[in-house]
Amino acid sequence: MSTVPDYPARAVVDLDAIRDNVRALRTTAPTAQVMAVVKADAYGHGLAPSARAALAGGATWLGAAQSVEALAIRAAVGPGPRILTWLYAPGAPLADLVRDDIDVAVAAAWALDEVADGARAAGRTARVHLKVDTGLGRNGIMPADLPAVLDRVAALQAEGALAVVGLMSHFALADEPDDPSVKMQTHVFEEALRTVEAAGIDLEVRHIANSAATLTNPAAHYDLVRPGIAVYGLSPVPHLGAPGDYGLRPAMTLEARLATVKRVPEGHGVSYGHFYVTPQDTVLGVVPLGYSDGIPRHASGGSLGAGGPVLVGGGVDDVAAPATGLGTARVLRVAGRVCMDQIMLDLGPYAPEQAGDVVTLFGASDGLARAGAPNAEDWAQAAGTISYEIVTRLGARVPRVYVGTAGRETA
Question: CA-CA distance, 102 to 313, in Å (whole number)?
Fold first, then answer.
């Protein structure tokens, strides 16, 4: 493993996997355009290279929650691709967004006039997507308030300050496609569409589908789908299928070198609180990653739980080929409490590992149940969370190393 100097761990991001995942999503939703959501530093994978890789896979839109992300995307990809941002408070740099040709969602009446002010300052018409709360109870215009919003839209469109080009919403339970709320929200969305169209607005795009709805609900594809976690090769519906079942493969592999390998006697306590005590004379290994790097403390092991899974003995020394095969490797669980900077493994009494050997926390796998190697979903299960959090929370001090040709500056 060729690490970044002075740091004993890395996240290897396969840009070709991101490209290919977008291609698979285009096949899944053939009647819709694909917006690759690259918010939160592309779910921890790196905003600029991930955005370019998604475009290489055929995404025609890029999506980001916050204004600063949208501006960074435009700087990274240049003119051309459509970009949408949807989450901001009063005082956001709306003139900069309009000037950079970024579409802006409007989720409250107050935002219409702020967007219009930004458009006037930029000297161009703002492209707006109205966001309707169809039942998620989060950001969005309540359906009862939509007629009044449309009255204000009419005046601002007549002025040329803005043009409504899209209507959007978001499901609450898209990962449970048979839940009655999915049909209910679709009905509310359809009613909102009729209201908007009756106001004389010719919509360019209608969109409500996230990753789960893109994969499981073709009726929700409309003109545009907005996959997020699926772009990075993780399943939004792990109870229904692994990544490979949907033509996806995880793009991130997290690996580290063992920092310490030492023999300890039976009955030796391990980590804070001694929630793991060695059942025999054995060999302990210290992995230099901890909760400051995003390793969830809830994935502690021993009497605290099963512990996060780690592939031992499956690493490689080539930066272009992160560990994916099992070979003679074995999967072990975190022994005891996850610390700020390190986790411990009980390597067993006959462990051949030495300091400097590579271990893999998660990688391009369909998971322990399918492949025998852990993926981010396995860590999510160990921590009682979702795979989105596992990759997105990965700390900034863990260097990202990019492999593959898609998404590079020269691509």
Answer: 47
Q: Examine the residue annotation and report whether 350 is marked as an active-site residue of this protein.
A: no
Tokens of 290: 């901890």
CA distances from 170 to 73, 174, 181 (A): 22, 9, 12
Q: Fill in the amino acid letter for 324.
A: T
Return the bridge partners of 358, or none.
257
**Number of residues in the chain:** 411
State the pLDDT confidence band at 5, using cuts at 50, 70 and 90. low
Residue with tokens 């390793």: 295
Q: What percent of the chain has pLDDT over 70?
A: 93
Q: Which of 39, 43, 131, 276 is catalytic?
A: 39
CA distances from 268 to 273, 285, 288, 381 (A): 12, 13, 20, 28
Angle at CA 67, nearest 5°, toward 293 and 227?
A: 70
Catalytic residue chosen out of the listed positions 7, 183, 262, 272: 272
Give the tokens for residue 354. 């030495």
Q: Is 272 a catalytic residue?
A: yes
Q: List all residues 6 or more positions away from 74 whose beta carbon is below 8 Å from its beta carbon.
A: 83, 100, 101, 102
Instruction: Write out pLDDT tens, residues 299-327.
Output: 999 999 999 999 998 654 443 344 444 44
Q: pTM of this prediction?
A: 0.94
